[in-house]
Amino acid sequence: MSPALFISHLIGGAVGTTALVLAIMLGTFILEDTTTIIVGVLAADGFVSIPFALFSLYAGIVVGDLALYCLGYLASTNARLARYVDHDFVAPFRAWLETRFVLTVFSARFIPGSRMPTYTASGFFRSPLSTFIATAILATSIWTTVLFSASYWFGSLTSTWAGPARWGIALLAVVALFLIARHNLASFKAAQQNASTADDTRTTSE
Length: 206
Known about the structure:
Elements: H1 3-12, H2 17-30, H3 32-44, H4 50-75, H5 79-82, H6 87-90, H7 93-108, H8 115-124, H9 129-157, H10 163-205
C-alpha cells in the first residue's frame, strides 16, 4: 500500500475526535503535503470541519518541525544519533543559517524537499529555538492554509465526480510535489559537490 493510500485509510478509519486528531497528526509525520491535500478533500466532503482539520494539521506539522530540530540537536551531542543526520548534507547550511536564519527556515516550508535538511541543520548547529519555532509556525500558517484551501476547493468542485477519477487527480498533485522535492534535493547536492570540487581545486592551486 502506498503512503498516500495508507494516510487516506488511516484518517478515514479514525473514530472519535481524539483518534481523528492523532490520525491527521500521524499523517503529517509521514507525508505532510499529502496529508494536507487528503484532509482538504475530506473537509470538502463534510467528513471533518474546517477549523478542526486546520488545527490538527497545524499541530502535527509544528510538532514534526520541532522533532526535526530536536533530532539535529541530539545528533550533535550523541554519536549514535549522528548517523541519522547526513553531515555532508547539512554542513553547508551553517554559514547560510548564521546570516539568513529566519529567511532560510521560512523559505524551506515552501520548497519541497528542503524542510528536513534545513530544520535538522537548525538543531544540529543549535540555532535559536524560540526564533525557529516562531518562524516555523508563521510559515506553516501560510503554506498549510493555502494548500488546504486549494484542496478544499478541488474537493468541492469535484464532489460529484467518481472516486477513482477524483483521487487520481489528487494523486497527480502529490506525485508532482514528490518530483519537485527530488529535483530540489538533487540540485542542492550537485551544487554542493561543485562547490566542494571548486574549493579543492583552489586549495591545490595555492
